[in-house]
Amino acid sequence: MTDFAEAREQMVARQIVDRGITDQRILDSFRAVPRELFVPAVDRGEAYEDKPLPIAAEQTISQPYMVALMIDAAELAPADVVLEVGCGTGYAAAVIAQLVDEVVAIERHHALAIEAGARIERLGYDNVSIYEGDGSKGFAEKAPFDAIIVSAAGSHVPDPLLEQLEIGGRLVMPVGEPHAVQTLIKITRTGQEDYEQEEIGAVRFVPLIGAHGWTETGERGDPCSLPERIAVAAEVLPALDDPAFGTLFDRFGDARVVLLGEASHGTSEFYRARAAITRRLIEEHGFDIVAVEADWPDAASIDRFVRHRPHREGEEAAFQRFPTWMWRNTEVDTFVRWLRDHNRACAPHAQAGFYGLDLYNLAGSMRAVIDFLDEADPEAAALARERYGCLQPWSRDPAIYGRIPLSEGFARCETGVLDMLRDLLARRMDCMGEECEEWLDAAANARLVKNAERYYRVMYEGAAESWNLRDTHMFETLCQLLDAKGPGAKAVVWAHNSHIGNAAYTEMGQQRGELNIGQLVKEKFGEQARLIGFGTHTGTVAAAHDWDEPMAIEEVRPSLAGSYERLCHDSGVDRFLLDLRQGADEGLIEALLEPRLERFIGVIYRPQTERWSHYSECVLPKQFDAWIWFDETHAVTPLPGAELPGEDETYPFGL
Ligand code: SAM
User: Fold this and answer.
1) In Å, how far from its chain's centre is CA 100?
2) CA 72/CA 377 separation, integer angstroms
3) CB atoms within 10 A of CB 18
4) Can you name the residues that pair with 638 across neighbouring β-strands?
5) Which of the residues are catalytic?
6) Domain 224-266+491-636 - what CATH class?
7) Taking the complete model, does pTM exceed 0.90, yes or no?
8) Cα 122-123-129 angle, rounded to 5 deg
9) Which of 229, 281, 295, 535 is the most exposed place for a label (fewest CB within 10 A)?
10) What is the pLDDT of residues 206-253, one digit of tens each?
11) Hey, CA dihedral for 404, 408, 409, 414, is it positive or negative?
12) Which residue, 173, 150, 169, 163, is CA-closest to 83?
């Protein structure tokens, strides 16, 4: 007759200790449980063999070492409450019961659950309760658990099990296809929404069959989670410097306008991705306008550089006003130099230009109009001086302009700036050839002055009014550019997600009555306009704490639970393109239509109040035609050195 006590001792020594598990508490718990009473009577002689054994319902009692490995990984403490899913004979539950306060064990097979329950009672394990049911759903009545051990292999880690884990709790389970080699994984819940995962090794288990596991026929029991569906639909992006990066965007090449967003104004990856896409659109698809969320006069000096036109005498270096890093950075510099090289080989009409859509540089635009007219038409220049003189007192800090009381003649500068624009537009109509570029530039500056005058005037009437004025100005400037270049002209726009993503499907549009350039372009061009948004989970960003304060490199907090960003992060794909157009993964798009939080970081970043300062609700698939994801991103590199007036070799940034 077998001496089971001796066999048990040998099992502990050879199968468990020799394989590296030496925790005395664990070893003693194996010494305390008579495994021979858990296996079928016919197999008792083999109860301590180094292998799993068959039990009823075509299931198995696991190999002793495998039970020890899972218990060791679960780091059980005496006060713990533990859930075991797939209790089979109840053997593992009995061993665990030696180490902790309470064990809840679930078995899906009726006969096994009844038998295990009777056995556990007979053997006197009074801190184990056995239930019949689908353990892939966990056991909410007794949750949360300090540890969950799943003794059958799932298709994935079931969400209910993650939710029922105590913060600090550990879950150990095999994951993988039925009847194949699977991976034993350990998940530690480190926070309300945070989990860490590690792989322990290759294993073989019977399948976890249930709502959140496999079906009897080997299909997944539940549809994939949203992050998993994102992972399936995501097209992995090559490295940013890989020429293949741009080719993924050929699908947007037939659009008239491609708008490329960014989730912050200080992230290197967003600039470099936009540069790579834009290069491709210019080289392969005939795009000839790069229009950016920057002031017209500053961008105009870059445009003269990239199109090999002479720069203006005495012109200031571009982008010297806050936030300088937004355009004065190495990422933009690299792109600008590429554009200049590209244009060198092109006839003037085929060159791609660089333009600013924004209206903040009121002083720069007034100066540009006057300087141009000084050369082109001194009489008109004198008139411009007089008309713009009205705004001169506020040109350094135009925000003050809106604060002058109505009694002082609120719109007293309005007529002059309107007349100036009208005159220049009329002159532009008459211009010929090369000269037209200069008149176009002057008219754009005059439009900027006119809109900026209104912008600063309505700034104190309400945020929505001034925002709408600014985005309408950007839209009009873009349309003017397209018109000026003719029906074949095609534009790429670089601006923040808040300007690019269709505002009608965001809190800003729905609750604050704000529109944006993305919405206006979509309304005008329909499918000929493609709106592409960008997102990130964490990393660093260049931003200021407040307006006009110095730039700092800030840590970007991990994205909030419940946000689109968190879904993308949970997909586990580091860098991807998600096509959201009709015809893409309809089921996924449908699921993403539920409004969720989205993060917006501008030139200011306030991590302490992040939820309220930087998140708002959006409907991503309606906002954008595509979404570009970089899980971890880094701050842009501002151009070093003092800001000097433009000179040939330092042009266009004056470094
Ligand atoms: N730990 C058990 C023991 O000591 O005897 C052996 C577990 S056996 C390898 C896996 C068990 O998981 C089987 O008894 C199987 O019926 C059970 N099982 C599979 N899917 C389940 C589910 N969704 N809920 C509960 N039990 C499940």
Assistant:
1) 42
2) 86
3) 11
4) 329
5) 62
6) alpha beta
7) no
8) 80
9) 229
10) 999 998 899 888 877 776 788 988 998 899 999 999 999 999 999 999
11) negative
12) 150
245-259, 299-313, 418-432, 546-560 — most confident range: 245-259
The dihedral over CA atoms of 498, 292, 646, 367, expressed in degrees to the nearest 10, equals -80
pLDDT tens-place string over residues 462-505: 678 888 999 999 999 999 999 989 999 999 999 999 999 999 99
Distance 108 CA to ligand 1 centre (A): 7
Ligand 1 pocket at CB < 6 A? 59-62, 85-89, 91-92, 106-109, 112, 134-136, 151-152, 205-206, 208-210, 213
Atom of ligand 1 nearest to the CA of 212: 23
| CATH architecture classification, 4-214 | 3-Layer(aba) Sandwich (3.40)
Tell me the sheet residues that pair with 172.
149, 186
The torsion angles phi and psi of 104, rounded to 5 degrees, stand at -110, 125
Pocket test for ligand 1, best of 208, 212, 222 (most atoms within 8 A of CB): 208
**pLDDT per residue over 320-361, tens digit each?**
878 889 999 999 999 999 999 999 999 998 999 999 999 888
Using the Cα atoms of residue 385, residue 386, residue 388 and residue 389 in order, give the sign of their dihedral.
positive
**What phi, psi does 207 have (nearest 5°)?**
-70, 150
Domain boundaries, the chain: 4-214, 224-266+491-636
